[in-house]
Amino acid sequence: MASKSKADGGIKETIKTIVYALLIAGVFRTLFFQPFWIPSGSMKDTLLVGDFLFVNKMAYGYSKYSCPFSLCPFEGRILARAPERGDVVVFRHPTNGSDFIKRLIGLPGDTVQMRDGRLYINGEPVKMEPAGMFTEIFHKQGPQGYYPHCSNAPVGEGGVCKKERFIETLPNGVSHHILNIRDGGYADNTEVFTVPEGEYFFMGDNRDNSQDSRFPRVSGGVGMLPAQYLIGRADRIMFSAAGRSLFFFWTWRADRFFKAVE
Asked: Active-site residues: which are they?
């Protein structure tokens, strides 16, 4: 009987440990990190469809979108650290409520404009250098089954989809890849945007395939984004799969596991 009681006690302790671990993991996820699966190609080639990452919700402080309302019962945003130009940020879309991920380009008080496919910040052209071609296979990508956009279109199923790639260096020295699919569209030639105080201007690295701050919200864009909609910063890709499901292990991209987001 003593050994049976001891065994029962051991099982109870194991269950209790598992429950506590799950609770702690849930609190950790709610307060500090949020998982995010890349659903579209707007941030290629920095982020690919099927990349899985955790968003650092502590990077900028809390808002009603980055912590439970019951724990953070305030309407504004408390900035622990101001977002920096070049950060890759997850935020809540002000109109449709979905989570977006883009790169922070314009800070409060900046002017931002695209001229002939080149970014200008405060009237000065941002440094841009050729970096070869970005290639991928033309087929349905991710659970939503979107086809990639190609500069060499039309491309048949299974063909090589190409895009021009450049290295863009922002005024604060942050360098990252951007892609170009076509020239001469609205996204390549915009008005001069002035970023209001307390708001931010975001763009996707895949410049011709991104609904971002260049586009008004009424047409599906982001517009200028108030700080209260920021959720957190993307720092590292934890896992990546090129297939329609993460369970298709033969599509895993091992070279992207634990890769830093730059």
From this structure: 42, 102
